[in-house]
Structure formats: C-alpha cells, structure tokens
C-alpha cells in the first residue's frame, strides 16, 4: 500500500484556482484554442473563459479576480488528465511498492488507471478508496480482478460459480472482470461471467491468450458481450486465412516464454490481407457489437527493437534496480523472454506490427473505439514513460495527434463508466467535469516526446547547442495540483536509495500477462 499523502504534497483543492493564459486541448476532438483561463473550484472545472486574442498581450487583471490560487500557464497547453486502461502495480521486492508507479503515472499526466489487476483484490479496493479520498498521491483507480479473486469460496469451476462471483464482486468494490482465456475459464464459464457482468454493471476486458483462442477469439468474444480486447490476442486468430488454428511449429511450447512470445509474430502472414473483404468484415462486425480495442502497442515494442528499449533514456535515473533486474532475460520472470533474440525475431515482429498497427487504425477509421493502455512494469517498460510511448505508437499507426489525445482521455473515460450506466466525469476539459488536467510547457500535438519525464532534446539555434525541453509541468487530479518535477525527483530518490542498498534481486512481477 502507498504511504499516506504527506502534508504539503500537492496544492490542496482551492475554493477557486485559476489556470491563466493556456492553450486548451479539450479531449473531445476539438482543435486547440487559446489563450483561455480555466477556473477550478474544489474538485471541478467551473468555467473555461477566453482570455484574449492570440498574439496580443493579455490583460493584467482578468475575471475572476477572487482566486485563492493562480497558475501562470501562459504559452503552455492544458489537456484532460490521461487515462491508462491497462495497468499493474507490480510486486518487485523491496520496491516502494505502489508509491513508485503512482508517482511515475502522475508525473506523466496519468490521472486515472484501470488495474487489471493493480494488486490483489483487497489491496486494490483499499487503494481505490484511499485515492478517492485523496489520502494518497495516486491516480484515480478502477479495480478489475480475475474470476475468483478476493473471495473465500474457491476456484471458479462452473458457470454457476462464475455468476456467484460476479454478484459478490459487485458488492465488494470491484469494477470489472479481467479474463485470460486459460485455466478454469472454459467457454461456458466465460459466457456466464460476461452475462452476469452486464447484469451487475461490471466492466469486462480480456487478454485472449493462445490457450483458448481457438474457441474464443476476438470475433467470438465480442458476440458473447465482451467490453474490451486488450493486446493483440484474438484479432488475427479471427482472420486466419486457410486454417482455423495458428500453424505452430511442432517444437512449440507455450510455457517456454521464448516460444510463446517469438511465436506470436509468426501469425502475421497466416491471415487475410489488410483491407480484404474478410479484414473489413471483421472490423465492421466488431464495431457493430461495440467492442473497444485497447492495443497496448508499447508493451511488446521491444520485440521489434530490443536494443532501443533496453537503452531508453530514463532507465538509469527512474527504473528501480530491482525492476531492471526483473527485466533481464531469465526463465524465472514473466516477460523476460529475450534468451537469444535474433535479427529474424525482430524482423517478423516488425512485419507483425505493420499489420497490427493498420488493424487498429482501420478500426478507428470506421468509428470503432480505441483506448490507451501501457501494461508497464514488464519488458523494459517503465511506468509513465511507457504510457507516453503508447501515444507515439498510436500516431505511428495513423492516428492524428488529436485522435491520439481522444484515445488517451475521453475514450478511456467512456470505457470505464459505460458499464456502470454513468456518464464520464473526467476525460474532457469542460464546465462541470472533474478537475483532472495535464499542463505542459510544450505542445504535445507537435511532438509527444515532449511529455516524457526526461524531456526532449532540441537544438537551440541561438547557442547552437542541444537543450532539454518539455516534460509535464503540473498534473491536477481532483483539483489537487502536483508538481511533476517534484514527483520525478521523489522517484529518482527511490531509485538511488535502492541502488545504495545494493538491491539486485526480485521476487518477480505479477506473471498474469
């Protein structure tokens, strides 16, 4: 559990806070506009006021004049707080536990996370409540758990027990179900759980693993009423060309993580071609059924360029030594599968990514909902930084910058709130919405790299030298203003302390992915 929020950690909600002179990117898809003054009272945005004419000096005194606090955001950009719909808290030994990812998420503008799961059910429920009360420095938390998690009535071995657990979950602060397509999750149990989830207003998301994907692929899962497909599993298995099951080599062993992850990419040329009638029919049917795609491009990106992921700018200062140890190739830890990663492996993963990126973009183009999830804490992806990489990858897929922001904000908010039958209270900067905001000195629409906590290198034309620009300036959650640089400094201190203590071992992260 995270430590209690210390006195002075963040500027507490004010009777009236005014963010002055910013350019607004509202999250709803509207173009940037500004300068504006954003008025926050307590935990809500109460007004967005045009503050002047672009290019002309701003008036010194602008209404409202009775603000308790003001933030000078002249020349900066205000966006809705980001939503990460695929997170885990991790269990790295001797790490500061959840305090570490919480602060990295907030430092990168992430104000809402969906844990799938974040932590074991009772801990996640407790952390969710503490975050709602702002007793901890943490994003807003949605608590999704796997079937059977948290209760004392044993494994889910029948459709009846799946329904009973869904009823129990709805009464125990669980917001949704995460399916894995494996273990006790037979098609009959999944079908019953999905049906009960709708009755209990629980959200649903599935990692359609290879274990059961021949029976429940992306097409079948949508027919059964699944809310979100996370990762790529299940999509291409719905598009196999001249056979029904991926053609695995005879030596393949799913429990060997090299086979499991190297073999994923082999499917790239076993499917119908992009833009073929079968490709389009799959996407149109998914759109008709209303399923959300949560691609999590970032978490597997090391597979197509291991060296780049391993040498990212932020590892030295912000990746815990124990997490770094966990990342190293070993048969002990989940996702550490680069035993002898070859040029051939990377080549087929690049081919796979070309088609996967296109599939997601094509879904977006026909009106399908796409969200932003990072799944950081595995495969050289450090919390927060991995989320910004996902924004870059959505743009690589073909999303315009405004479409990327929409996926990162209101699309995630709607996905989390719709199962409850409620309208989102976050995800858009608008009067009456919760004051979950990101304030950045650089224009993220011009370059998402400027959102990384390590900043972005740019040549200063006057000095002819490189300088570091960017990073988030402030993250506001529930009206509480957090200095992103202070959050990063706290994380850097955690890393340095663990390094001084000589921490090199780990118990391993949640191996659920």
Molecular structure report:
A hairpin with a 2-residue loop joins strand 16 and strand 17. The C terminus is likely disordered. Strands 1, 2, 3, 4, 5, 13, 16 and 17 form an eight-stranded mixed sheet that branches. This protein has a seven-stranded parallel sheet with strand order 6-7-8-9-10-11-12, with helices on both faces. Strands 14-15 form a two-stranded antiparallel sheet. Helix 1 runs antiparallel to helix 15. It is globular, with a radius of gyration of 23 Å. With 513 residues, it is of the alpha/beta class.
Proportion in β-strands: 15-25%
Biggest β-sheet strands, sense, barrel: 8 strands, mixed
- What share of the residues lie within helices? 25-40%
Structural class comes to: alpha/beta
Q: Give the C-alpha Rg.
A: 23 Å
The protein's oligomeric status is single chain
Q: Treating each run of at least 4 consecutive H or I residues as one helix, how many helices?
A: 15
* Shape designation: globular
Q: Which residues form runs of ≥5 with pLDDT under 50?
A: 505-512
Distance between the termini: 22 Å
Beta strand count: 17
Mean pLDDT: 94
